[in-house]
Structure formats: structure tokens, C-alpha cells
């Protein structure tokens, strides 16, 4: 199930995101606030998944009536927007990061991966129309500063951040699924292999698939599993950064090439 941000009423969503009006009416309970409601909603989503999120579930966690929430949050669509914006505010944004642009992008990638691991429900949220909240704006601005002043134009800067973010989202999905596999199936990776390997051996012909046999055995021995999400993330991240480095290098030599052509 995929939920979409940006589906709420624009005026109400922006008001709650930027806290321009804490209450929608004057009848709110003094012990409730937008922050408390959002915190409870995140706890529900963390524990049960985004599909289980409802205004009723949030109210139960807070020990209040469901209708009392609407004094502060207009509805579930607006709640999703502010939840997403709120957790984006958890990402660390240090100013001094060693390693130049590459070190800064590495940190951004690792922070985003950690965010998905803490809140797996974010992987079931489509933010192609992102909540225009303060945390998301601040996060985007910080990420752009990682590649500012290195020879890229504005569109290329945005594209690099989008590339890294897209890579992390895919890697995070694999990592979260691997982490949840044991709980969902009741079997560890090792138990799964021991259960399947005797039957697989009866139908698999190593001579027919020599590369799969050799490489699969080497990878399985290295990872002690069919898939190691940590290794996959690190390997892929470095290759993405290598590609960005090559692109930055190509941008740096273009003026010289152009000058030679003119001469």
C-alpha cells in the first residue's frame, strides 16, 4: 500500500506544517498539541506500519476521543504531511564534514538510510509531491550545499541530490526487507538455506550454470547469506559517487576543450 503526501488541503497543510495556527478551533484540549499528535502517529506507524495508521489509532494511543484530534489536525492527509516533514527533521546536518563534496554526500546517504531504518513506513510514502514543510526545506537546502561551488549548474546540483536520494531509497528497501524477513517468515537466512538446499541440489546442475555456481558460492561465503544489505549499500554508494566524480571531472574540462576548439 502506497500513501501519497500532498493530498491534503493546501492551506490547512501549510498551516499545520509551519505551525501558523496551533488549533483549528478554540475547543481544543489543553493537554493536546500538534506535536503530541504527530509523535503518537509516528509511533503507530513505526510499530504497525503505515497501513495501520488511522486517526482512531492515534487517538487510542493518546487516550483521547478521535474527534478531539480534528481540533489540531484537519485529517489523515494533513497528518501524513506533517509526519513526513517531522521525521525528516531527525537527519543530522553538521556543517564541518571531512572529505569534501564526496564526504558530504556520503554522510547525507547514510543519514537517509538511517532514517528509513528507523521509520520503514517512509518507504511506503510517495513524496513526489513533497510536503512543503520547514524540515524538508531545510534538509533539501543542506543537501544542495554539499555540492555547491564544485562546478555544477543548478539543475545538475538538484539532479545529483536526486540521484543519491533515489539510490538510498532502493538500498533502504532491500535492507528493511532483509531485516524484516526473519520476523515475517519465522526463519533466519541460515535456516531458510538449510531447508531449501537439499531440494535445490536435486534440480540444480552446476555444469549447466558454471558462473552462477562459482559466483553464488563466493558471494554466499563472503556474506554468509544470499544477500548482505550492508555490503550492497556500501558497494553501490561508492560506485554512485565514482560516477558523480567522473561527471564533475567532465564538467571541469569542458571550458578548456572549448577553448582549444576555438583556436
UniProtKB/TrEMBL annotation:
The keyword Transcription regulation applies. Pfam families: TetR_C_1 (PF02909), TetR_N (PF00440). Residues 31-91 form the HTH tetR-type domain. One of its GO terms (molecular function) is transcription cis-regulatory region binding. InterPro entries: Homeodomain-like_sf, HTH-type_TetR-like_transc_reg, HTH_TetR, Repressor_TetR_C, Tet_transcr_reg_TetR-rel_C_sf. Residues 54-73 bind DNA. Coiled coil: none annotated. Keywords: DNA-binding, Transcription, Transcription regulation. GO terms for biological process: negative regulation of DNA-templated transcription. Gene3D superfamilies: Homeodomain-like, Tetracycline Repressor, domain 2. This is TetR family transcriptional regulator. It comes from Planotetraspora phitsanulokensis.
